[in-house]
């Protein structure tokens, strides 16, 4: 068996080793398992998931305001509509 060098970000390696230690698997064992599954299935053996994006300041403020309105902490003075025609009438009247 030959030896191969793999470069990992220090923090990623630390987190990976910590998780693998908790299940009794070595980093080398994990890479061998993943590589073997890639060869057997001819596809990446796991879902690739992007981290959830951090909300912007504007989005965070909107979420807090919505929750405060839902809890009755601040009044909800947003107009309500029962159908699209009411909404369109409201929007048409905004330019006046």
TrEMBL record:
Highest taxon of the lineage: Bacteria
* Protein's recorded name: Type II toxin-antitoxin system RelB/DinJ family antitoxin
Q: Name one Pfam family in it.
A: RelB
Q: Extract the InterPro entries matched here.
A: Arc_rbn_hlx_hlx (IPR013321), RelB/DinJ (IPR007337)
